[in-house]
Amino acid sequence: MRRLELDFRRQPQAAKRVGIALLVASLAGAAAMAHQYQRVSEELALAEAAVHKHGLALRKKTPASTPEEAQRVALQTKRAGEVVSQLRMPWPELFANVEAAQTPDVALLSIESGADKRNIKIAGEAKNLGAILTYVRDLQGQPMLADVYLESHQVQQQDPQHPVRFALGAGWRARGSDRNGG
C-alpha cells in the first residue's frame, strides 16, 4: 500500500493561480470603471455647462410669440407646479399615520394623493367589512388625517375566502395644524 501524505497548510498551486487571476481581473475592472467614471463626469460637466448657457439664453428671449406657444408654456408651467406640489407632500408623515392604523385583517394595495386638494385615496383588501370599519375608525384617530370615509367596497366572490376590496378617502392636515382645521 502506498503512503498517503496530507499537508493541510500548503495551498495547491491551482488555487493560487485562480486567486491571482481574479485579482488581476478585479484590478482591470476597477481601472476600466475609473476611466468610465471620469469620462461620464466630463460629459456631465459639459452637459451642465450647455444647459446653463442655454438656460441663460432662454431667459433673454421675448415672451411667447404665438398663442399656441403661450398655451404650451402655460401647460408646462402647470405640470411643473403639479410636480412641485407632489414633491412637497409630507409623505413620511402621511405614511407614518397610515401605518400606525394598521390592523392584521387589512392589506393596503395603494395610496394616491391629490396634493392640490389635500386628500388621499387608499385602496386595500380586508377579510370582512368589520375589519374595514375598524380600520376606518383607527385612521380617523390619526393626527394628520381628517374626514376618513369609505368610498366603496366589493366582496370578491371569485376568491374562496371572499375578501372585501375597498377604497377609502381622507383629507390630510398640514404639518403643525391643529386637530380642528387644515
Write the layout of secondary structure elements.
Blueprint lengths: L12 H48 L6 H21 L3 H10 L5 E9 L4 E8 L2 H12 L4 E11 L8 E9 L10
Antiparallel strand pairs: 1-2, 2-4, 3-4
What does this protein look like?
The protein has helices at residues 13-60, 67-87, 91-100, 129-140; strands spanning 106-114, 119-126, 145-155, 164-172. Residues 178-182 have low confidence and may be disordered. It has a domain at 91-172: Gyrase A, domain 2 (2-Layer Sandwich), CATH 3.30.1360.100. A four-stranded antiparallel beta sheet has the order 1-2-4-3, with helices on one face. The longest helix has 48 residues, at 13-60. It contains four helices and four strands. It starts with 12 loop residues before the first helix and ends in a 10-residue tail after the last strand. Strand 3 (145-155) and strand 4 form a beta hairpin. Helix content is 50%, strand content 20%. The protein is flat, with a radius of gyration of 30 Å. It is an alpha+beta fold and 182 residues long.
Task: Please tag this protein with its features.
182 residues, alpha+beta, Gyrase A, domain 2, four-stranded antiparallel sheet, 4 strands, 20% strand, disordered C terminus
